[in-house]
Amino acid sequence: MKDIDEVRERIQERKGFYSRVNQKDKKLSFFNFLYFITIFSLIVGGCYVGYLINEQKHFIDNERLVNTVQSKINEWNLDKFVGWLPFEGWFRGDSKAVSEIISYSPYQDDYFFSDSNRAISIADGIVIYCDEQESGKIVMIKQDNGVIATYGALQEIQCHENDRILKGTVLGTYEEAIFLQFHLNSNKITYEEALALGN
Amino acid sequence: MKKRWHWEIKIPILTLVYFVIMIGSGMFKSCFFLFMIISFHEMCHCIAATLLKMKVEAITIYPFGMQANIQNLGFYSSFKELIVLIAGPMTHLINPFIFAFLLNLGVISPSMQSWLLNINKGMLIMNLLPIYPLDGGRIINEIIHLFFPYSISEKITYSLSFVNLIFLLFSKTMNDAAGFVVMMFIWFNLIKSMKDLSIVKRQFYRFRLNHENSNKKRIHSYNDLYKNSYNQFRDGSNLIEEKDWLLQQFHENSQQILQKNLNGML
Questions:
Q1: Does ipTM surpass 0.95 in this model?
Q2: Is residue A69 part of a domain?
Q3: Which residues of A touch B176 (CB under 8 A)?
């Protein structure tokens, strides 16, 4: 193949000026690159200008659009596709039950405590909300089984929103007690019921 | 030289549909990282292949990453192909350092890093499974080619892969929806490869006819080529050179086709 390339180069050189006009030389490649950057900038700039105009004139109601899309997604149950994520459950060996990793004991109302001061997820899910409140930091997880788990009164959070959380993952740390609340289909359920669903 | 780095990229509609579904299900961040890990894996295959002067025909972007189609992969020497095949799994040894770097920058959280390490481990193990057409199966295939002629090597590889796939099925280590789909995909790929063996063998012969072979000489009387050797065929007291043998194969084949066409016309 090297010989063929050398022969091609010699033919090109013999053609002279005519071949140089048709060849893609360095200047032409640089022009192509500039052209691509210009078109790309025009598209991005156009979209941004459209967004700014919409902010002033409100041609499209962004919030209503998002809510409509979200309601359609909930209608189609697209969140059930969570189980189709590959690799995460493969070759994990014998997965331990959460009670073997951590055991929360009741403290007061919805407050619990454990041997360590780490907040550990009781089931697989996605972090839907992370924020700081008066009582401390809060993490809400939408579990694969449909339960919305709230871990509150945290000192430190070790996850971000939209993170994928597996059973036994450390979410953060707490000082004295952790706030735990579980909801399924807008109904509050107990810690034991949530644990049974998670296993 | 510039054309060597010109890779065609294909995006099936299924990929776009999948991404829309993932955005809707709130899994976009996880799927994005999964896509990047698999893509890094395939890109390293492509880069290794391109550096070794193999042509990358196209890169197809599937929902779970990319698949590189390298022209004539399986026809080059085992040493060259092993470099290309090992380049992919090597990325999974580098990934933990990349995750640690991203954690330091604050791009990912500790829980995300833990998830990514889990995914990376799963991907590495799966890729190294001795099942064709996974990387592990192809590596085993290249090792078998060191000892057996082409057809026999391929048949041994496929047989081993079927047995290992059945073990994997009964081991329940990939017992979720995605695992089932992947195993079915591998199953059909294996059946297709076995069905196409005779065609691929002809393509291999044509490749050997059109390319130089500077391997070590091997004298034998099999009616097939050893991939990693310059073959010389024993015909009584004579020795037939590889190129002559290949020309004879294609001549016989064309005679057969000609005879068939004549019979059809008559």
A1: no
A2: no
A3: 83, 89-90
